[in-house]
Recover the amino acids of this structure.
């Protein structure tokens, strides 16, 4: 398979585009109780502490993406092309998001952080997260790459983030024993993930139709990704599996969010981490297909 | 700026790949790295009838291709570090290795498969038009080496007088990147349509 070289060569970017947008969306969703001002002060401190989990998910993605660079020592030059290169825009947005998130996390450990400042800061992080997800989606819009320069690509990135993000947020709440993890909120997050899964499948279906006629003198997309339909099916199954596990694990949680103790707690954490892993695995499958399908007008594969 | 460019005479090219070897030798390029490639372009099919007689509509022609130092270079558009740049005096596109991070986006975006990341060097590499030879008043190595004199190099204006701008299938429409490659197609190349496929994919990757 010709495209396998590209996909395996860019495997770290597959990881990056899987983890980073989902982590950013998870951080946004997890911080909503702080932004809305409904969380108690103790809960604000707890959520702030465990916001590091989605931040780590995003950061692992970013570190993975840096490993594919031939000369990472020159990376600061990336800021020279902000505004003209979509890749520079993506890196700038990533740096702003991770810097805001990291500094917030450090600040939250102060003995008496300002509640007002924390809320404002979370609002800024949320805006940065949205900009980052949009920038990741647009980073591949090069006019000559005919299999990537499609409207479905940024939409799929956003829909995938909305599917994986809630699952990562649920797992992070459970690990942090946050009282914000109520049955109602868990149901809402699972519903959001389910809606995003349905939207993702629809977008991938339309993308498959568009890609069906795309090819150049070297190969066609149907040659490069012969099992596209099977990959979409695997995506749907893995994603649905994760959502069902998350929903079943959280449906009997107490309404006031009192975290379970002992073995039940470990069971809840285990099941929600499994759900998040399944959601991320689903996204990974389609991101791999994305790199498999690389094709330019002319002779590039 | 006097934009420089290549001329390729498809009616002379025999597909011997001396241009490829001369370039690799001159720049000491390892296995898997090439600044110029010769594509074997194939169209049509060969069939056997009930009586076992074969007939064919196949036509094969060659295309020697390096960087076309485009006037609308997509590699420069996507480069995140501005390492890929056009020389103001010659219009030749070159990689500033002190800025390149080796991300490979130029390779992914180029429709002529010209830049590639040399893993051992950690940055993009490509045909830069043999600037040292040009400064000495000599032709690029590939042009000098071609035994059939199928390659030419000079100002885009002079090359345009000898052929059409990237007019042979399977190249993309010239308006995509405005390549400074001018071609006199072979008879088969002139007759070729959209069904042209590359016959030596593994060799030219």
């Amino acid at each position: 398979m010709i495209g396998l070289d590209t996909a395996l060569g860019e495997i770290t970017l597959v990881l990056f585009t899987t983890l980073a947008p989902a982590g950013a969306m998870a951080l946004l969703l997890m911080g909503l109780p702080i932004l809305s001002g409904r969380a108690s002060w103790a809960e604000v401190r707890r959520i702030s502490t465990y916001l590091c989990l989605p931040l780590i998910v995003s950061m692992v993605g970013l570190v993975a993406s840096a490993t594919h660079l031939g000369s990472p020592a020159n990376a600061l030059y990336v800021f020279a092309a902000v505004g003209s290169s979509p890749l520079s825009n993506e890196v700038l947005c990533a740096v702003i998001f991770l810097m805001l998130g990291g500094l917030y996390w450090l600040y939250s450990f102060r003995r008496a952080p300002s509640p007002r400042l924390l809320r404002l800061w979370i609002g800024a992080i949320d805006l940065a997260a949205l900009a980052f997800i949009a920038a990741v989606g647009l980073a591949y819009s090069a006019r000559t790459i005919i299999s990537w320069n499609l409207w479905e690509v940024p939409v799929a990135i956003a829909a995938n983030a909305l599917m994986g993000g809630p699952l990562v947020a649920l797992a992070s709440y459970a690990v942090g024993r946050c009282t914000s993890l109520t049955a109602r909120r868990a149901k809402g997050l699972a519903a959001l993930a389910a809606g995003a899964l349905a939207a993702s499948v629809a977008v991938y279906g339309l993308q498959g139709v568009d890609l069906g006629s795309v090819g150049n003198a070297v190969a066609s997309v149907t040659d490069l990704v012969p099992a596209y339909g099977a990959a979409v099916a695997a995506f749907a199954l893995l994603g649905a599996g994760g959502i069902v596990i998350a929903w079943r694990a959280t449906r009997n949680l107490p309404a006031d969010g009192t975290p379970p103790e002992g073995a039940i707690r470990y069971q809840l954490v285990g099941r929600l981490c499994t759900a998040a892993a399944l959601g991320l695995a689903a996204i990974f499958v389609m991101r791999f297909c994305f790199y498999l399908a690389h094709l330019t007008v002319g002779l590039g594969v | 700026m006097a934009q420089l460019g290549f001329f390729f005479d498809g009616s002379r090219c025999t597909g011997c790949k001396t241009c490829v070897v001369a370039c690799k030798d001159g720049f000491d390029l390892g296995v898997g790295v090439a600044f110029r490639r010769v594509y074997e372009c194939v169209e049509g099919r060969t069939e056997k009838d009930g009586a076992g007689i074969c007939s064919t509509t196949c036509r094969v022609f060659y295309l020697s291709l390096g960087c076309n130092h485009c006037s609308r270079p997509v590699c420069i558009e996507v480069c995140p570090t501005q390492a890929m740049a056009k020389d103001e005096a010659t219009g030749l596109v070159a990689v500033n290795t002190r800025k390149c991070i080796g991300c490979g986006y130029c390779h992914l975006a180029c429709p002529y498969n010209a830049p590639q990341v040399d893993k051992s060097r950690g940055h993009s590499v490509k045909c830069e038009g043999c600037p040292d030879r040009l400064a000495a008043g000599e032709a690029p190595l590939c042009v000098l080496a071609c035994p059939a004199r199928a390659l030419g190099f000079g100002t885009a204006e002079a090359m345009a007088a000898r052929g059409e701008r990237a007019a042979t299938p399977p190249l993309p429409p010239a308006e995509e990147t405005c390549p400074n490659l001018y071609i006199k197609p072979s008879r088969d190349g002139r007759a070729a349509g959209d069904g042209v496929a590359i016959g030596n994919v593994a060799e030219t990757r």
In short: Chain B touches chain A through 46 residues (CB under 8 Å). Chain B has eight helices and 13 strands. Residues 6-41+57-194+199-203 of chain B form a domain with the Alpha-Beta Plaits fold (CATH 3.30.70.20). Helices of chain B lie at 18-26, 74-78, 105-109, 131-135, 141-145, 156-160, 187-191, 201-204.
